Structure formats: C-alpha cells, structure tokens
Amino acid sequence: MAIPPAFLVAENGDVAKAAERYQTTLAWRKQNNLDAILSEPQSYYDTIKTHYTQFLHKHDKLGHPLYIEKVGSINMPQLKKVGVTPDTLFKHYLFAMEFTLKYAAHQTCSCDACALSETQKLCIVLDARGMGMRDMGGEVLEFIRRCTGVMQRHYPQRSFRIFIVNVPSWFGMAWKGIKPLMNEATRAKTNILTEKETAPALLKFIDAENLPVEYGGTCACVGGCEENSSYQRLQRKLVESVLESTPFESEDLVRTISLERSGMNRPSSDEEPTTDSLSSSSTSRSSRGSMKRELSSTVLDQLFRVGLVRSPGRSKS
After folding, report:
1. Where is this region: Disordered (predicted)?
2. Domain check: are 70 and 198 in the same one?
C-alpha cells in the first residue's frame, strides 16, 4: 500500500504510524461515503449557506487557495428550525472540503511546503466576528471542535497558514476549548488577530485585489465575494447539476480559476511577504523564486508575535 507523502510528513517519517493513520482515514472515508459525496444531492445547500458562511476566494501571494469561514455566522437555532441537524451541517462541511480538494487543491503551487507533502495547502481565514459567549458552551462550539478534529486526523498537511480574525476580547476562553484539538505544528501556523490587526496582517500575504473588502482588500465580486467568486460559482454549478441531473459544465470557470491562480489577471506587482514582513510596517520586494521556501522556524517566531500563538514546535500537522 502506497502511503501518501502528506501522512508521512504528518507522522515525521514514521512509516508504521503513517500507514496506520492512512488506513484509519480510508476506513473513515468509506464509512462516510466521501468518494461519492460530490455526486450526492445537497438539498439543504442554500439554506445552510444562509446561516453558515464558508467560501473559497482566489489565492494568496504564493498561490494557496484562500478559504474563508465565518464561524460567527453559524446560526444553529435557525438551522434546526428548517430541519438542518448538526449531522447535516457537518456533512455539508465535508462536502465543501471534498469540493475544495478536487477543484481548488488538485494541483500544488511552487512553495517547498506543498512540494514536500505533495499536497496543495490552503490559506485559511476564520472570522470570529459575531461570535457570542453563549456559543462557547453549546452546539456551535461542538461543531467547530468536530470539524477541527476531522481536519487534524484525516486531512493532514492542508493548512499553510491559519488566521483567526476579528476575535473578541474574550476569545481566549474559546481558544482553550479548541487549542487541544490542534497539534503543535498547526497551532504554530495559527495567527490570532483582533479587528484592528486583521487587515494589515492579511495584506502581508494576500494581494489586495484577491482579498474581500471587508478584510481590508479591494476585491468586490459582482453579487458578493461569498457567493460569486469563481470557486463559489463553480461549486453552485456542481450542486445544481446534481440536483437537476444535468451535465456539469465547468470548463469556463476552471479556466478562469487557472488564470487567477497564475496571476495573469492581476496588476503587475512582485511584492511578496518577506521574513520580517509581520515584524515591520513596511514590505520589501523579492522575486517569486525566493518565496518558494517554506517559512523557517525563526520566521514563524516573528509571524506569531502579531497574535497570541507560541513559537512553533517540531511536530507536523
């Protein structure tokens, strides 16, 4: 049995542990029918999108797909009123993740981190705006914990950076409940940002034209970034094609996404994040080749001074 490199990297090269973990993941995927989930009708798709916002939106400066999830938007009482149970919501999350892997993370960018694990990593933005303290002891927190646990166990090496943004002053209490579910390497990639810190930090790593206006960028997709980024229009086409039993016509949007990813549709700019980009108010210019190497532990130490996360350790995610 060939073990995917991502599992080997996650287990620090321990073949036995990687094989066991991969076998567990294969069994879990079979149990949840994940290989067929994209061809299953998503009957609650629009309802869930109304009360739980998550979307793919262009890419960061190195080509990692940008995944944005508004954890503060989860309205569990309203979802339950219209028949969406926590299990149904979780299945929607898995559908979105499988879509991401097939249509956004099916090829790897040129950074060393992705090349090492042979997986396309994501730049993840988790928006805590709107989260109330009441969410921290109920089904919302349980849903977040469930999703976090699955990502840690069965989708290794998928996060390049994680930004938890617009955090309220009391967020430390919520972090205590989520942090134990993350291994040390994932915690090291996680940057916790207040509302004031959000835009400056994100713009170090994401070009303004690729970042929605609400996070300090200049992108304002016609009809709204949440529903009308190229990725989300592709996802909706897939959902509609399954529900209506019609062909999935994806070629035009796939081509558009490819152009967005290559940078052919962006203004000419070579500005990239540098080793001290989060410890200085100014950014320097460097070639894309110089940014292919993954941030070193020294750089990560500097990166997480912006937030509340400790320096990274040696374990892998």
Report:
1. 257-295
2. yes
- Asked if residue 237 and residue 183 are part of one domain, the reply reads yes
- For residue 273, give its domain range: 40-303
Nearest Cα to Cα of residue 187 among 178, 195, 196: 178
22/113 same-domain check:
no
Q: How many domains does the chain have?
A: 2
The two structure tokens encoding residue 257: 């996404």
Q: How far apart are CA 34 and CA 146, in angstroms?
A: 16
Regarding whether 53 and 191 lie in a shared domain, the answer is: yes
User: For the segment 29-81, what is each residue's pLDDT rounded down to a tens digit?
Assistant: 999 999 999 999 999 999 999 999 999 999 999 999 999 999 989 999 999 99
Burial 33-56 (b: 16+ CB within 10 A, else e): ebeebbeeebebbebbbebbbbbb
Given a cut of 60, is residue 274 above it in pLDDT? no
In-domain check, residue 314: no
pLDDT above 90 covers a percentage of the chain that reads 58
Would you state the pLDDT for residue 138? 81
Spell out the residues 6+ positions from residue 251 whose beta carbon is closer than 8 angstroms to its own. none
CATH of the domain at 123: 3.40.525.10
E strand residue ranges, the chain = 53-59, 65-70, 122-127, 159-165, 190-192
